[in-house]
Design a protein that fits this description.
By secondary structure, the chain is an all-alpha fold. It is built from two helices and no strands.
């Protein structure tokens, strides 16, 4: 069973993915946790 990734919900440019990776590393989060985090911010 594949967990739904945030990528499946929103179009993401390659450079944005790179920045998200840096964000995830900086905050010691998993990649998609970081994305979901940012999506939560956007959806507020």
């Amino acid at each position: 069973m594949k967990k739904e990734l945030a990528f499946d919900r929103i179009p993401v440019k390659p450079e944005t993915k790179y920045r998200l990776k840096l964000y995830a590393v900086k905050n010691r989060m998993k990649y998609d946790e970081a994305i979901n985090d940012l999506l939560d911010e956007v959806e507020k």
